[in-house]
Design brief:
Elements lengths: L6 E9 L5 H9 L17 E7 L2 E7 L9 H16 L2 E7 L6 H11 L4 E7 L9 H10 L5 E3 L8 H11 L17 H16 L9 E10 L4 E10 L2 H8 L4 H18 L2 E10 L7 H11 L6
Parallel strand pairs: 1-3, 1-4, 4-5, 5-6, 8-9
Antiparallel strand pairs: 2-3, 7-8
Length: 304
């Protein structure tokens, strides 16, 4: 039998906000790594996910949705996306096919088209539309020069395995860059803070999710009790936002804490005692010191 050469490389998942990038990466990894919500700009930095199989290793970059940056935070988000575009072996353009095309989609397609890597277009959320409506979208991307266009549903899994097989064929030959046992390179502290932020996104509305960040202040292992004690601060920009987050009589922050604790206990595999605090930090989305601290918490661990 002919020798099978190992494949290894990087795959950037890019698209407009809420295109389904995080849902798709989680499906391909078989585990929840990126947080998911129906709010735009849920992903604020590139989340690295590592898929290792006998045939090789695929390193995903789940990037922030492409949008016009208004704040310093958003400018940094777009920097992560551009860096992933420029450095990836393969760029996957994920499109929400259930939404009508607009200027944002055209801009995104042009941005991806200019990237150096190989390209794959995935028309997502096909479970929400009738198949005849897909034909004009497929034709439009074919006219732009995209050769590989696959309809999928990241939610139901329809077409996802076919798309993954295409990706394996597009990766270059090479050896894995990371230990096959690794799922990601991010510190566990960052992933825990992200899961807390996910519950803020789920249980709040309006402008609050965009103006909120989570800082993990304390992580104490209490092995004799089989417990981990966590404390986190939720940053907001205005006193009114703090009131919304706390809720009447502190009810909303209790709901967020309970939902986060249950999720973290399942994730960490042990009991969790979680304390949440809310702090008003005016204009934190424009403050480079705050943004730098948040980025530092997410930096890849030293893998030796």
């Amino acid at each position: 039998m002919p020798e099978t050469r190992s494949r290894a490389g990087t795959v950037a998942l890019v698209g407009r906000p809420n295109a389904g990038k995080s849902t798709l990466m989680n499906r391909w990894l078989g585990e929840k790594l990126s947080i998911v919500s129906d709010k735009p700009q849920t992903t604020r930095r590139s989340i690295v996910g590592i898929l290792s199989e006998p045939r090789g290793q695929m390193v995903f970059y789940d990037t922030p949705g492409i949008h016009r940056p208004v704040h310093q935070m958003n400018q940094r988000m777009m920097r992560f996306t551009r860096e992933a575009l420029e450095g990836a072996d393969v760029v996957v353009l994920l499109v929400d096919a259930s939404e009508p095309p607009g200027k944002g989609e055209s801009f995104t397609a042009e941005l991806v088209g200019a990237a150096p890597g190989k390209k794959l277009v995935l028309l997502n959320k096909v479970d929400r539309i009738e198949k005849p409506r897909l034909l004009p979208r497929i034709a439009a991307y074919a006219a732009r020069g995209y050769a590989e266009i696959v309809p999928i549903s990241a939610l139901t899994g329809d077409g996802c395995e076919q798309a993954l097989e295409l990706l394996w064929g597009m990766l270059p030959e090479g050896e894995p860059s990371f230990d096959p046992e690794l799922l990601t390179v991010h510190p566990e502290r960052f992933l825990v803070a992200e899961r807390i932020r996910e519950k803020v996104l789920e249980l709040t509305r309006d402008e609050l999710p965009f103006a909120t960040a989570v800082v993990l202040d304390r992580w104490e292992e209490m092995e004799d009790r089989g417990l981990v004690r966590l404390s986190a601060t939720l940053l907001v920009e205005k006193p009114g936002q703090k009131g919304i987050l706390l809720g009447k009589g502190g009810q909303r922050i209790k709901e967020i804490g309970t939902a986060a604790r249950l999720d973290l206990e399942a994730y960490l595999g042990r009991r969790v005692y979680l304390e949440l605090f809310v702090k008003v930090e005016p204009g934190w989305r424009e403050r480079k010191d705050v943004l730098a601290d948040l980025e530092r918490d997410a930096e890849a661990v030293d893998l030796g």
